[in-house]
Amino acid sequence: MNIAILTSGGDAPGMNPLIRAVVRSGIYYGHKVYGIESGYQGLIEGKVIELNESSVGDVIQKGGTFLGTSRSPSFQEQDGFNKAINVLDIFNIDVLIVCGGDGSLKGALKLKNAGIKVMGIPASIDNDLAYTDYTIGFMTCLETLCGLISKIRDTTESHGRANVVEVMGRNCGDIALYAGLAGGAENILVPECPTDIDEIAKKAILGKNRGKRHHIILISEAMGSPYEFADKFQSLTGIDTKVTIPGYIQRGGSPCVFDRILASQMGFRAIEEINKNNFNLAIGTRKESIITRNLEEIFSEESKFSYNLLNILKIISI
Questions:
Q1: Which end of the chain has less neighbouring CB within 10 Å, N or C?
Q2: Cα-based angle 313, 126, 284 (whole degrees, multiple of 5)
Q3: What's residue 302's pLDDT?
C-alpha cells in the first residue's frame, strides 16, 4: 500500500520517533511511505515526499517534527478540503496516518467521512484526548516543567515569595495536575475543579506562619489571567507574588524515554492494523497496553481527569 503520514496542530516531543516507527515498520512490511510536510496545509498544497529508512535516521532524539506542522483554516473550508482529497488521489495514497491532538484527529474523522482511509495517533502535550491514558509529548512536557519548577522554587525560597506558573493544556488540567504533583506545587488551578482563592490564601498563610518561605501555584491556561490571580493572592496573603509563563518552552526539547517508546509502539501498531486492512482507527494506550478505538467514538468519551491524584496533591502539599 501507499501510506502517508502528516503531523498537524501544535508540535509535541515524540512526533519524530513516531514518524520513524511508521516509516521503518511500513517499509519492512512492503509498503511505500510518504511524508506530508506542514500538516493539512501541506496536504492541500501537495507537499508530499517519499520517505525511506535513511529519511528518518538521527531523528529519534529530536524534538518537534521534521515534516513540519501547521494549523490550517483552509482545510475547514470546502475548497481546501476538496484540494486535500485530490492530492491524496493524485499520489495514490491508500491510507493517511494523522498525528496530532484533538483538532487534528477531528480532521482525520472528516476525511474518513469523505471516504478516505485514515489512522489517528494522539500527539499533544495537553493530554486532552479522553480515550487514551497518555498522548505523545505529555511526559516530556512534564519533565520540562518539573525542572522549571525546581528552579523557580530556588529563587522563590530565597526571597520568601510565591510564584504563579501558567501552564498549557487548553481546557484540560492534566499538565497542571501531573506537573504540580511531581514538582511539589502547593496548589493548582484547573478547569475540572472549582477554585476557592480564600482557601488557597488561608493555606499559604498557615505555611508562612510555620516558617515556609515558598509557595508555588500552577494555573492552567484555561483559568484566566495568572496576573489577576497573583494580585488577588498577594492582597489576601501579604506574600510578594511573581508570575512565570513558560510558554512554548513546554513544547520543545528532546523527547523523554517514555515518549520515544510510546511513539514507537503506536507507530508500529498503526502499521500492524493497516496490514490487517483495519482502518479508521485511533491508536491509544490503556494500562500500559496499546489499544485501538473507532475514530468516530473517541470524541464522546468522558474526561479521564484523575481526582484521586488531585486529592493526593491537596493532602501532601501542606
A1: C
A2: 100
A3: 87
Sheet with 215-220: strands ordered across: 187-189, 215-220, 162-167, 241-244
pLDDT digits over 207-227, tens only?
Answer: 999 999 999 999 999 999 999
What's the CATH number for 139-251?
3.40.50.460
Quote the DSSP letter at residue 212.
-
Taking every pair of Cα atoms in the chain, the longest distance, rounded to a whole number of angstroms, is 70
**pLDDT band with cut points at 50, 70 and 90 for residue 318:** confident
Degrees to nearest 5, angle at CA 84 with 82 and 86: 70
CB atoms within 10 A of CB 211: 7
Grid coordinates belonging to 18: 513516531
**Look-up: residue for cell 489499544?**
291
Q: How many CB atoms lie within 10 A of CB 125?
A: 31
Query: What is the signed CA dihedral for 75, 14, 260, 50, rounded to 10 degrees?
Result: 60
Distance CA 98, CA 186 (A): 38
Q: Catalytic residues, which ones?
A: 126
Q: What kind of fold does domain 2-137+255-294 have according to CATH?
A: Rossmann fold (3.40.50)
The domain ranges of the chain are 2-137+255-294, 139-251
Look at residue 69 and give its three-state secondary structure: coil
For 41-92, how does the pLDDT look when each residue is reduced to its tens digit (9 = 90+)? 999 999 999 999 999 999 999 999 999 999 999 999 999 999 999 999 999 9
Q: Measure CA of the first residue to CA of the last residue in the chain; give whole Å.
A: 57
